[in-house]
Amino acid sequence: MPDKTIFQKIIDREIPATIEHEDDRCIVIHDIDPKAPVHLLIIPKKLIRNVATTTEDDTETLGHLVQIARQVAAKLNLEGGFRLVINTGPDSGEAVPHLHVHLLAGRRMKWPPG
Length: 114
Prior knowledge:
By secondary structure, this protein is an alpha+beta fold. It has a single domain (6-105), classed as HIT-like (HIT family, subunit A). 20% of the residues lie in helices and 21% in strands. The protein is built from 2 helices and 5 strands; from the N terminus they run αβββαββ. The chain has helices at residues 6-11, 59-75, and strands at 19-22, 26-30, 38-44, 83-85, 101-105. A 5-stranded antiparallel sheet has the order 1-2-3-5-4, with helices on one face. Strand 2 and strand 3 (38-44) form a beta hairpin. The N and C termini lie far apart (35 Å).
C-alpha cells in the first residue's frame, strides 16, 4: 500500500492543521505557506489523485468542493471576491498527489496568474 499523502494524514488527525470547516466529504484547512492573506485548501476526504484522474463518480464530490468554497467565502466575508485554483500535474505546480482546491482571497489577484 502506498504511503498516505500529507492530506490523508491531516484528515486522519495524524498531522495537525488549522481547520476552517469539515463535513463528511471534505476538510478545509489553512495553507501553511499562504500565497494570499486568505489561503485555504479544500480537500476531499476521498483520495482522488488529481483532476486528470477523475471519473463520472467524482462529479458530486467536485461540485461539493465548489459549494463548500462558496460557503466558506461567505462565512469569512470575502466580499471582494476570491479565486479557486486546482493544480493538475507537475508543470502546474501540483505538490501533493491528492486533489485539492486552493481558495485565495484578501488581495487583488493578478492576471494572467502563471
